[in-house]
Each structure stands twice: as structure tokens, then as C-alpha cells.
Amino acid sequence: MKKFWQKLKIRWEIESDWQVTIILLVFSLTGFTFLFISPYIDQLFGLSEKDPMWLKIVVFIVVTLPIYNLLLIIWGTLLGQFKFFKNFIIKFFKRLLFIK
Question: Among residues of the chain, what percentage have pLDDT more than 90?
């Protein structure tokens, strides 16, 4: 476990064990929050189990990815990790859009 923890610190370019804990907590809170609101997003767009998968994928990419990242910023800011999550999201979208 300690080896994994050290790898996270190196990969995320952070020093503190406490910061790793907070960052993992932010990811957890974001996931739970997103799980809670995702049915409402589907309902807002009128999606059901009968809709084609391609439509669900498009809605996911266009709507839910930005909402998830917004939740990361909100939770990260509330727990004092705005800078980390701002940089994390910038890197994520650069990879997603193949930007160097």
C-alpha cells in the first residue's frame, strides 16, 4: 500500500500524504454526487433504457463529462484542492482532445 501511495504522490506531483487523502476523498465524493444526480440528467434529456446506446454516449460526452468535471472543481475547492483539480481537468481535456 505504501508503494502505491508513493506512486500517487509522484504522479500527481504532491508532497503530503494528507493531500493524497483529500484528493482521493474528492474523487469519491464526486463519484457519489454524480451517481446521485445522473438519473435526473437522464430524465432532463428524456433518456430511458429503450433509447439507443449511441444517443446515451453522445449525451454522456456532451453533458455529463462537463458536469462531472464541474463537480470535481466544486468538491476540490471546498476541500482546499482547487489548484490540483484545475490542473487535473486541463490535462484531462488536453488528452481527450489530443492537444499537446
Answer: 45
